[in-house]
């Protein structure tokens, strides 16, 4: 029985590659080109053209400009909303106070000019001073009176209560102010209640 540790006499064959070698007509082995690696393939790819890079940069620049403009508009809008809140936050309260001004004006109108003496005249003077002080307080809060009598009717500023047929003044002229109207800044706080002229249609 042969010893397993002894060489069998046949040469050992070492397989260096699983790729079959190719030979030329003379029996000499041919050189096989190695497969390119992923890194070599990536390096072989052509870089982007200058025109493509410029187009990408231009697109990015336009997006940044647009975002900056949007942010600027947002800041302006927020500031305007805050300013409006500050201006008109007291509008409801001030509108309620207009009734006090109306009553003071009625009280002054009910007292005939020059016909009062003594305490009555002093009372009228006191009411007039109170009315002026109240009007100054409203003006300090941005409240101003709407022009009415003699003005052309404006549906945004005036509310028609009566119409009078007449040719003495142009059509739609405010002939009488029944209740004063007021603005707060650029908004109508309360429209003026008025009587307007309606010209009579003349027929031949």
List its traits:
204 residues, alpha+beta, Nucleotide Exchange Factor Grpe, Chain A, domain 2, three-stranded mixed sheet
Structural notes for this entry:
With 204 residues, this protein is an alpha+beta fold. It is 43% helix and 15% strand. It has a domain at 143-204: Head domain of nucleotide exchange factor GrpE (Nucleotide Exchange Factor Grpe, Chain A, domain 2), CATH 2.30.22. The protein contains 4 helices and 6 strands. The strands form 2 sheets. A 3-stranded antiparallel sheet has the order 1-4-5. The chain has a 3-stranded mixed sheet with strand order 2-6-3, with no helix packed on it. The longest helix is centred in the middle third of the chain and has 39 residues, at 50-88.
Care to give the gist of this entry?
With 204 residues, the chain is α+β, with helices and mostly antiparallel strands. The chain has helices at residues 38-44, 50-88, 91-110, 119-140, and strands at 143-145, 158-165, 174-179, 182-184, 187-190, 192-198. It contains four helices and six strands, in the order ααααββββββ.
